[in-house]
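re: ur question from earlier - yeah i can do the single chain one, its not a big deal. heres the input i used so u can compare w yours
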Amino acid sequence: MKASELRESTLEELKDKEVELSQQLFNLRLQIVTGQLENPSKVKVAKRDLARVLTVMREKEVQ
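and the output i got, formated as tokens:
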């Protein structure tokens, strides 16, 4: 997911994406604890995507 794609989204779409990514990150952390996660790099990607969404949301709020 690129920041330029996120900047084209509305604030409501970004909030939905934030909720989705937060839930995904929670599930990935749960899988780590239970030993079910096969690819740990998914956590890193999810964190970065969530950070991008939050950054773009903040940019839109400031404007």
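The domain at 3-62 is CATH 1.10.287.310 (Helix Hairpins). not sure if urs matches, ping me
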